[in-house]
Design a protein that fits this description.
2 copies of one chain form a homodimer. Chain A is α+β, with helices and mostly antiparallel strands. Chain A is 39% helix and 20% strand. Strand 1 of chain A pairs antiparallel with strand 4 (99-100) of chain B.
Chain lengths: 573, 573
Amino acid sequence: MVKKTAEEFSKDQKEISVSEFFEKNKHLLGFDNPTKSLLMAVKEAVDNSLDACEEAGILPDLTVKIKNTKEDLFEVSVQDNGPGIVKEQMPRVFGKLLYGSKFHRLKMSRGQQGIGISSVTLFSQLTTGEPTKVWSKIESQKKTFYLELHLNTMKNEPEIIKQEEVEAPGLGASGIKVVMALHGRYRKTVEDYLKQTSVSNPYAKITFTAPDGTKTIFPRSLNELPKPPKEMKPHPYGVEFGILKRMLSNTSSRSIVSFFTNEFSSVGAQTAKEICKVAKITEEKKPSELVGADLERILKALQTVKVQRPPLDCLSPIGAGELEKSLKKEYPNAEFITTITREPSVYRGFPFLIEVGIIYGFQEEQSENTKSNKKQRAEEEEDTEKSETIELMRFANRVPLMYQQSACGLTESVKQVDWRRYNLDQRSGNLPSGPMKLIVHICSVWVPFVSESKEAVASYPEIIKETKLAIQDAARKLSSYLAGKRRAGEQKRRMQIFDRYAPEVAHALSILAKTDVKPVEKKLKELVASRIHIKEEFEEENGQPDTNEVKEVKPSVQPKQETKQTDLKKQNK
Amino acid sequence: MVKKTAEEFSKDQKEISVSEFFEKNKHLLGFDNPTKSLLMAVKEAVDNSLDACEEAGILPDLTVKIKNTKEDLFEVSVQDNGPGIVKEQMPRVFGKLLYGSKFHRLKMSRGQQGIGISSVTLFSQLTTGEPTKVWSKIESQKKTFYLELHLNTMKNEPEIIKQEEVEAPGLGASGIKVVMALHGRYRKTVEDYLKQTSVSNPYAKITFTAPDGTKTIFPRSLNELPKPPKEMKPHPYGVEFGILKRMLSNTSSRSIVSFFTNEFSSVGAQTAKEICKVAKITEEKKPSELVGADLERILKALQTVKVQRPPLDCLSPIGAGELEKSLKKEYPNAEFITTITREPSVYRGFPFLIEVGIIYGFQEEQSENTKSNKKQRAEEEEDTEKSETIELMRFANRVPLMYQQSACGLTESVKQVDWRRYNLDQRSGNLPSGPMKLIVHICSVWVPFVSESKEAVASYPEIIKETKLAIQDAARKLSSYLAGKRRAGEQKRRMQIFDRYAPEVAHALSILAKTDVKPVEKKLKELVASRIHIKEEFEEENGQPDTNEVKEVKPSVQPKQETKQTDLKKQNK
């Protein structure tokens, strides 16, 4: 064998463009099968539109259309009423990976990587050679800007095919319309995604036209936007050596104390001074003068000095009340609904928050539908999850997560809960079984996804712990409902027996006591009635009203968290 | 609420460097907990060393040292006897993400992304601020080149701290030594990884010094390198629109026929002409003249024209024989060992091949050890996999995959096999249970990993299918061994009964037949002996020898695949 030398090796060394990397690893972006690919195109556009509308303070009104142009070729069109994009930015927003406004800030949003929509341009040209087409209308301009572009994978830069100003009255005062052609396969997953999006974004109106022409409207159940989440500065608890070093060399603060108060969230002058003291650093020292050993002492000091937790206004949960309304709208026949919004917590200095919803007992028709959808997705993923288990719906920053369920930290949390304690069947280490849907939502200024396709949340221990606590809170409420239901059933059976034998017994007693039969029977009936009374009291406690009206129970066990619970009488039974 | 305009949005749009992206998403690179981080540092360096040695035709001799410098701070040092790296390339090899020699070619190797070792530099400076230190000796230079470097995350470029020529006699004729400091946690996982590496690379010698000073040597069991895998050109079956378009615009071929024969593997002139004919393209047409519609017709033609499958010499499996030897060395007390190497198959035009090994019945001590390791890893990953299931060892291009078992396509394949058909317990949808270790190895010119940390293989349907077939082949052999073992046990019990009652029965018969007892007893004993004979025949068939020597059985059912099977008598029972 001829020996290859170091010099020969060196000739092959080459830079790899990030677009080339993802073109070859397209499954990392979620383009690993035709069904997912089509969903990704819809999802990236819809997520961007919702982010833009919300941030601009506009109630979202989206129109999604999918056309099957031929065989496995689809055209996806998504239009919004957002603020639009200025023409100078359009090429890179749609035609360059790792470009965007959301990466370099700590603010809760759907997008965070600067990859999503450009990855669709990449996949679209890879499978069809077609350019991405974008119309953008901004308020300050009369005309709409039209752009057709490719992504140059060798350079990771946009390649403009055509650009011009046009009349496009359909876009109204402002908005974006994007049209992309790609290889795909149409399945109900797209509709499921939009339906779930509607649940977690009740203030958005989405009009969807499927390839067969069927039009579905997901209306608003809420006419105002949620309180917008605030941008935050890094929290000192999550800071790492390299980040601190970079912040110190980039800061314009003159002293280390002002550096801490200016560049971090939750650090006041007093805390900054305390950090300096523990780290044995003079308060007036310039940030640029610090060396490695100083940084190490600062990082150590941060482990002992008490710093306020991150600001909570940077998170915008759906809210237990709104989530419950959304669920009731979508599952009007559910027997029992409860929702929980936990207080925020922190991982790696990033605040996050968990919300959970439980829907118990729904009509078979829906359930069958769900099963077939689950089965279909399971087949696509070659998943072994059995269909008798509950349906788990995962969300991250209001975005439904449709794939990679088994790789997700939220799923892991559900499996780790001992559901038998809450009156549900569960095979050890699996999801529980039963006629139940479970919603788990994580909000964070930075959601750690297990891949660029953002389908599953990484299993950070703090996230697992909080998610389990949230689920347990909700499960306790379900459990007491189920226990009550069982008790009420037993009571009722016993009363029916009394009722049936009352005349017989009254008759026998009247003979024995040698009295008239009427008063005895009356007394017996009163006894039975008092039992019924007990049952009614129970129903009141557990919120089982006789109309279909919703009854809200005050939060009981957990005073600090918002909680909603509804028990709907099955109307159609 | 103040409305944010498109112009205001545009100010925040910014490019994101790939290093910034991965610094924030360090869990994508495998740095999501301290134990994994330390393993990643060892793994990336070892994988690179093995690749370099093999490609240079040098029998690998590696030295791995881990020091616990203070608290959670570790120093990882890996030295090899490879060809070394020329000094001009060193900064970018160790200090730039997406840079390397392996991405732009189709050749089986451990590295393929140009991310691995630079990601350790990134993580090291993030957690400790320390630079990566590299010594490189190449054969043509007298002195060793020493380099200390950081990675500038904003630019994704190396930042040289120090470079000089030094005397470093320890490196011999050529080699690399790399030293990296990082936050971590030491667990047996590192040793497990090296042990498994030794199994899949029997020609490598690895000397390992743990933080407590314990030195472990994993010796060679083989003194020559495997046949080196050949580089291949793309196979037309996997080509996509965008790739074909780029190849056409980059080619120096003058005609479409020569384009096909020059730029693709497995395409001869005849096939190229056939493709042109079906696609209705003149053979002499210049590649640059083709338009979108031509490309579409070519892609369609490729679905009907029969193209030879990709060349097989581009894959270098461990081999059933070598794998078996490795397993015997590592598990000398195993009761039964079988190995399978399948014929290569293709996904997306990339050839790949599956190997499987089964080790059945081993000593409790080992098993306990395994269990605690498994348990530990499960805890680190918050995994719900139960410990009574078999131990699965996954490999990709000879690299042991230590994490993300449940997200891996290879695991999925094991779960999809119906193990009850092969006499093993299995809960539906889980791994089987029993005293068994299962090895699954995928070799490919491009392994599709589910993340940049290369811990799990994506579930491409072709890969799942081939892996299941390979497992079933091996499981059949195990099953017939287990069935034989059970039958032999039953026979033996029956014979013992005959044997025990022979004198009694002979006595009674002799009275009834009024003959002498001796001949009757002799005939009865002969009968029993013939039963023993049957048993011995069975044992011979199934290769149960009376010494500890290995008996190799010829491949029987699958003529096309290499297969080894050993049944080792338990020596220490």
